[in-house]
Each structure stands twice: as structure tokens, then as C-alpha cells.
Amino acid sequence: MNLRCAILDDFQSVATTVADWGPVLDRVELVSFPEHFATEDELVAAVSDFDIIVTLRERVPFPAAVLDRLPRLKLLIASGMRNSVIDFASAEANGVTVCGTKSTSTPPVELTWALLLGLARGIVTESTAMRTGGPWQSTVGADLHGRRLGLLGLGKIGSRVAQVGLAFGMDVVAWSPNLTDARAKEHGVQLASSKEALLSTSDFVSVHLVLGDRTRGLLGASELALMKPTSYLVNTSRAAIVDQDALLAALHEGRIAGAAADVFDIEPLPVDHPVRTAPRLLATPHLGYVSQNNYRIYYSQAVEDIEAFLAGSPVRRLG
């Protein structure tokens, strides 16, 4: 009897076509789920009779409470090589092998600039007006050249965002808890003397930090109050780095010019969530990793992970 493989959160219904699953189709039955399972009970009811699960990024948590209820599960594949919502100890205890895939940091870099430019030039407002008979020109775009771009984080993604900012002729500064002057200079940017100095002097602030104990809630009401009323905030990293209530308050009160967000405290975002109607906010449904090349990598390597597991030699193991 063939093994059964569930592909979760296949929102665009492309997982089975963006990669060649041929090498495993003689042994594995694929079932794609384009809908998101919002509760543990819904998830367990849907996948309890599957041997393999392919999960997208950190969308679906796999705590012990879920893994303990999936006795048939033997292989769990997560896209990417880091996952904070899988209980690896429980997976091991339940005899579940957890594997990952490679990914590329290019798509979130590109999306960061799509959002930043969209904010700066009022793209959504002007495009909507064009398509609905609205006014011809209603915004005055914010210039990038000569303005200051403040980066919270200068890792793989932040450093590449910096390169684009420099190409636009921006004054780029960066800060993170461990960032040194030497590393900042390697990337041609200035080290901000403090987080507060970066926030108070930057025209655009972009978040590129890993979520952890030191970065959770890093930008709260007091930090947002330091930003210029003409400045913009972009977050394509993790929602919890920015206090969501404080950000909504700043947007409603007009204390910053605008914000763009690709990450949220609940995903998918409920239809009645206040973020959906917040003013001065450009929001996208966590598209940072969503690109043809990334999907090709994710699902092609998921096939490789399954092949290796069936051969008794799992690869790219996580945990």
C-alpha cells in the first residue's frame, strides 16, 4: 500500500506542479490542502491518516499536543532549515523524522523594496484611484535619494536591503544587539549609536531581525514615539518584533506617515482583524518567501527528502 503525503497550505494550488514529484509517485499518494486549518482539531482530523506531511514555513504549529495525535506520521518536512513551531523533542519521541529544505533570501529582499517603494510613492492609493474614477494625483511621493534608511538587522536579508538602499543614493544606517562597527563598514553602512538614535533619525525603518527573547516586542509604543511623523516603518521579518497594538495606535493617530507589514500576529489574518482596516498601512499576506524559485526549491527538495527517507538515509534533518 502506498504511503500518503499531505501538502499543507498550498494556497495557490501549485505544490504538485512546481516540482517533479515523479520519483516518488509510485510509492506515495499526494494530497494537497489549499485551505488553512485554523485549529489543532481541524488539522488532526484532516491529516491523521497520512504518513508524510509537508508544511509551509512556520504556518502550522506541530506541538506535542498535535504530534501525539498523529500515530501514523513518520516524516514531517518543513520548508526552510529553521522552524520554531515544531516540537522536535516530541517528534523524536513519536518516531517522526523532521527534515527541511533550502531557501533563498532574495524574495524577502525584493518584497521589502516593493513595500517600501509602494509606501513612498502612494502606489496603492494612486492605482486604486485610477481604476475607480478617483482623483488624478492625490499624493506627493517621498524621495529616497538623500534620505536615511535605518535597518534593524544586517544579516543575510538586511545586508542585501542595504545594498539597494545605497544604490538609490540613501544614507544607510544599521543597528542590532550584536552588530559591530566593523561589520557595518563591510557592507558600506554606518553603525547607529543605538536603536533609539536609528529610530529618531531615519526616514525609513526596515526590520530584518530574527525573533527571539531579545527582539520580541523590540519596537513598542515608546520606540515608535521616537520616529519622525514623516517616517515609514516596514516589517517583513516577524510580527512579534513590533508591538501590534502600539503600531495600530500610531497609524490611527497619524504619529508616523505610514507602515508596511507582511507578517502578522495571526496568520492567515481573520477577516475582521483590525489590521485589515488600519489607515496608512500597506499590508500583504506574508508574501516574503512566496516566489517561483523559492517554491521550486521547497518542493523539489521535499521530493528529495522523501526519496532519502524511503531509502533509509534521511537528509537535511532538523531538530
Strand content: 15-25%
Spatial extent as radius of gyration: 22 Å
Superfamily (CATH H level) name of the largest domain: NAD(P)-binding Rossmann-like Domain
What is the CATH class designation of the largest domain?
Answer: Alpha Beta
Number-wise, the strands total 12
Number of helices: 11
Assign the structural class, choosing from mainly alpha, mainly beta, alpha/beta, alpha+beta, or little secondary structure. Answer: alpha/beta
Fraction of residues in helix:
25-40%
Biggest sheet: strands side by side, in what order?
Answer: 8-7-6-9-10-11-12
Beginning-to-end CA distance, first to last residue? 29 Å
Please describe the structure with a list of short key phrases separated by commas or semicolons:
Rossmann fold; five-stranded parallel β-sheet; 15% strand; 31% helix; 11 helices; 319 residues; single chain; alpha/beta
Topology, please?
Blueprint (H helix, E strand, L loop, with lengths): L2 E5 L20 E5 L7 H8 L4 E4 L8 H4 L7 E4 L9 H6 L3 E4 L5 H15 L2 H10 L15 E5 L3 H12 L3 E5 L5 H6 L3 E2 L3 H7 L2 E4 L13 H4 L7 E4 L8 H9 L5 E4 L19 E3 L8 H19 L9
Parallel strand pairs: 1-2, 1-3, 3-4, 4-5, 6-7, 6-9, 7-8, 9-10, 10-11, 11-12
Helix pairs in contact: 4-6
